[in-house]
Amino acid sequence: MPRTISVPSPAPFSRRRFLGATGGLSLSAALAAACGSSGSGGGSTASATPLSQASIDKAMTTPTTLTFWTWVPNIADEVALFEKKYPAIKVNVVNAGQSQPEYTKLRTALQASSGAPDVCQIEYEYIPSFTITDSLLDLRPYGASALKSEFVDWTWSQVTGTNGEVWAIPQDTGPMGMLYRQDIFDAHGISVPTTWDEFADAARKLHAADPTVYLTNLSPSDGAAWHGLLWQANAKPYTTSGSSTVSIDLDDAASQKVTSYWGQLAQQGVVSTDPDFTDSWYTGFNKGKYATWLTAAWGPVFLSGSAQATAGKWRAAPLPQWDASTPASGNWGGSTSAVIKSTKNPIAAAQFAQFLNTDADSTKLFATKQFLFPSTKALRSDPDFIDQAPAFYGGQRVNELFAQISDTVSTTFQWPPFLDEVMTDWTDTVGKALADKTDALTALAQLESQLTTYAKNQGFTVTSTSS
Amino acid sequence: MSTPATARGRFSLAKPGTAGPIFVAPFLLLFLLLFLTPLGYAAYLSLFQHRLVGGTTFVGLKNYVTAIGDPLLRHGVAHVALFFVIQVPVMLVLAVLFALALDSGLLRLAKVIRLGIFLPYAVPSVVATLMWGYLYGPSFGPFAQIGRNLHVTVPNFLDSSWMLASLSNIVTWEFTGYNMIILYAALQTIPRELYEAAAVDGAGAWRIARSIKLPALRPALTLTLLFSVIGSFQLFNEPALLQQLAPNVIDSAYTANLYAYSLAFTGQQVNYAAAVSFLLGLIIVIISYVVLFLANRRGTR
User: Which of A252, A250, A262 is nearest to A222 (CA)?
Assistant: First the structure.
């Protein structure tokens, strides 16, 4: 058989960063050209008093141009729905990069007090990193409080601040499940693991039977996926109280349990530790190197675009459980629309963020055209969405499964106000230990100490409740 | 000025003394705006500290003191120093050999070979690194696949023991041709009569290379060495791109420049990053000076 190397192009809607590594020199130039709205003014002071309908109506009929940074492809379709409803408002869509490249530009614009957008796509885990710098607008006065019941509970808690502020409107989500190769499982007599113990046994059994296959790949460069697994285990590694106190508890029982579990599997060499979203990783899926992918709700569509050679062989299941009697999951990825505090048109910007993610037509378009996994309760029971049965998964109703999984995601997981540092330090410590097959718990302790040092240097009061 | 007007004088704009500054003015203006101003601003920034909680405060030289004692910065500088010590001699020896071979006139297809060796320099370093990164791939890279088919164990070029060598290989591939061209051009300036005289004195090709060509290459070699010092200590593109493939081998402080970048853009410690950059610039100046000093001292001995 000819050995062809297929290098699938990554689907454009991956939730992950592809770090632009060519340096930051072109940054200011890109910024200068990026957009026009400027100044710091608009943002009202933190009061939860709702605006009158009259002032909203007035703002929505005044000719206004909003700048919207997002990396969702073809979002012009949804934007057009808004512009049709509010002809006075024009939305200028700018793709300022995906995830970290966008945040870097946003931070630079905020520091320069010039060039920041009115509305910006921000992932859930990064919200605290922008509220700590007081860069987001509390949307409560603009009618956001009333939207709580429309969204899945944990997505709403992710956008809610410690004093009840609404910092952003949820767009899509990534509750985690397990995609697995039915054919590989059948060939080796492995039944779908429902607990992590079963999963570990299956990992050893599969790798012993066929040394070229691993039950799964845990990326040593993807702190976001790993934090999703922490979330599932009900770990509470970061808690922020007030504006300057953060608690870093990576040595709590749940984090220790997850870390030592994966550390052991990696040391035994029965799970692979390849960096994800690389050519080698895509090829691994196409060639059957990995029998499962522990991924998020956006994973099924992403995989069907990236591993076409294996179409029809995949199925989906919930993540294996720590306690089978109380099924749980975590979240990996997904985004929100946040209004930047420096906007001069807070009412129009807030209305836009809300419309985009709550309007029935707009949200349905996201779910069925861009395949974003929805955050609204309505869509999660919409037959057009949950009845989809893609052939890549043998006709399984994958969306319905992930909608059920979403109900098991805990609402209390919090992110620290310096996520970039967490992710980089995680890769340098725990990720490195997994890849090098060294002691993961030692690395976890090192991560805690590095983060504590960083937080103290940044002026935080750091507490640790579990040690 | 009492000098009589000459033919040249009639074309000068004003007094003879003013033409020079006018010609230099566009350069000076750009130099000031695009070089000195950002440099000055960075120096200014490096004297402050910005915290997520508490804002910006003036800290004087504290950032520099921290940087000097920073183990991660030392780790990065040590890496690039090791890289410099291994990679640069290999690259320059290769470049000298190629230049001598081309200059000897004994090669067939000399122009094709010259172009072939120079061509990698025309490939952007980002593209070159992506290409080599693919070739190095431990699972599905061509080297690994060929090795597997021949039942030969191919090392993992992207693991921690090989990474520096793999990076050296990429940089050598990229810049040998460039250095070769500089050296080759220097060889071309040697008067051919010297070779004839040497031949009359009974010198063979090797003797001519050793006694005439190599000494004549010294200034050009010093120049390439200087470029290499700067290039090595500023190593960024190649490790930054290979970081995607081996994120745990190339950590955020693998090279000094990478460390400055991650301080500024992931740690948001812009002020500290500015101090680190200045310190790094100082290190480069010192090492360049030492290299020049050593080269000149030997040259005049």
Answer: A262
